[in-house]
Amino acid sequence: DGLGTDVMLKLDISVQDCTCCPGYFAIGGEYTVLPSALDANGYLKTSSSLTFTQTSAKFEATGKDVCFYKTDARAIWNNAANACGNGYVGTVSYIDAEHRSMGWRLPTVAELGALQSIHAALSTQPTSALDTQNLHTANYWSSHELNATNVWAWDFFNQFSDGRYSKSNDFYVRCVRSY
Fold first, then answer.
1. Judging by DSSP bridges, how do beta strands 59-61 and 31-33 pair with one another?
2. DSSP structure string for the chain
3. pTM (2 decimals)?
4. Would the CA dihedral through 162, 166, 167, 172 be positive or negative?
């Protein structure tokens, strides 16, 4: 008002765009593999069935948030990363067109394991977007290979990770993105 009574305040706010996570939002849910858990070829060591506690010991929580996409695809492992990268399994669209360019990837096996406790009620979680589907009680591909022919997957029925799955198996894919 020109009389010297105006006050300027600095305001720090954070606004989350709800369209950035068309699925389940997992706060602090990103995990990266520890270098000590990899062999000389860059593969995740050991192949026995591991609980989430045993699996997560090979990873480090980054503190970043992740978003799991709202629906699943089915694919052999060699096509699973492609399903996340461009939204297609073969010629079938998996990720909605408006969400394809968001930087989706295959989740780590620890990120999948972290979802175990809520998988049966995923679509009713308060942090789930509309139309988010429950995870199947089945195997889901992870981004980690055991060797040239086998990959780590999370088994939502038996509640463990295992690296003895052939890349030729047809498992579910639930893509994830970090932010």
1. antiparallel
2. --SS-------------GGG-SEEEETT--EEE-GGGB-TTSPBP--S-B-HHHHHTTEEE-S--EEEESS-EEEEHHHHHHHHHHSEETTEE-S-GGGGGG--BPPPHHHHHHTGGGGGGGGGSTTBPTTPPPPPSSEEEEEEESSSSEEEEEETTTTEEEEEEETTSEEEE--EEE-
3. 0.87
4. negative
Q: Per residue of the chain (179 residues), what is the pLDDT tens digit?
A: 566 677 777 776 555 444 579 999 998 899 999 999 999 999 998 878 999 999 999 999 999 999 999 999 999 999 998 889 888 988 888 899 999 988 999 999 999 999 998 999 999 999 999 999 999 999 999 999 999 999 999 999 999 999 999 999 999 999 999 98
Tokens of 51: 């609980």
